[in-house]
């Protein structure tokens, strides 16, 4: 009888150590972080002029259930999206997350910029203005950062950005160098995501790659939504040894915005 009990206990321990769910599939490591980056086109579906559909954007986010979302092209109290509407805060309520907004420019009586949504309470949030070359006609750009404490007590920083769109890429280079400098002072693992308005191999992305590790090598196209032909929406992290990439996915959601959302699953290993 004693030997039967010991054998049964060993079988039970072996079953638990496989880290499988009740359905028999492999469970995610406990330090897994899911990140989504999404240029939301101020929640205006391209097929519906002047319509603001925050429910559609929230639906995309809720379907993915991310820990962090980097948002670009976010309206706050603008005429076109509603004087009383703070899009980042509305999306936070609709997704059960916390929001941090960073203004890029004043627009239509309100503000227009970027944001981070976090599943975890935000311990510290910042908005940084990014540089432009003297005489540049580029639109002012920003970096939005949040520091959070994960369930295991470890701290990470999540950052969202949207680089300049004009050619040549002088402003993008200045902005990416400043982002690398700012995030290099974080003192903790950093995830950076956004619309870089630059393709892999370009000068700005070479600067990104010198300081961060992207979650994809041959990155799938992210824009335009109907027939994607280039990759400008990316997720990256630093230091390189801090994370392990489990998955990088471009989500085929073609109604809510003019960009495809991009998701990545990372394991925090250091």
UniProtKB/TrEMBL annotation:
Name the record gives this protein: Metal-dependent hydrolase, endonuclease/exonuclease/phosphatase family
GO cellular component terms, A-Z: membrane
Swiss-Prot/TrEMBL GO biological process terms: GPI anchor biosynthetic process
Cross-referenced SUPFAM superfamilies: DNase I-like (SSF56219)
Organism name: Chitinophaga rupis
Domain of life: Bacteria
Endonuclease/exonuclease/phosphatase domain segment(s): 36-259
InterPro entries on file: Endo/exonu/phosph_ase_sf, Endo/exonuclease/phosphatase, GPI-anchor_lipid_remodeler
Organism lineage string: Bacteria, Pseudomonadati, Bacteroidota, Chitinophagia, Chitinophagales
Pfam families in alphabetical order: Exo_endo_phos
GO molecular function list: endonuclease activity; exonuclease activity
Signal peptide (UniProt feature, chain positions): 1-22
Keywords carried by this UniProt record: Endonuclease, Exonuclease, Hydrolase, Nuclease, Signal
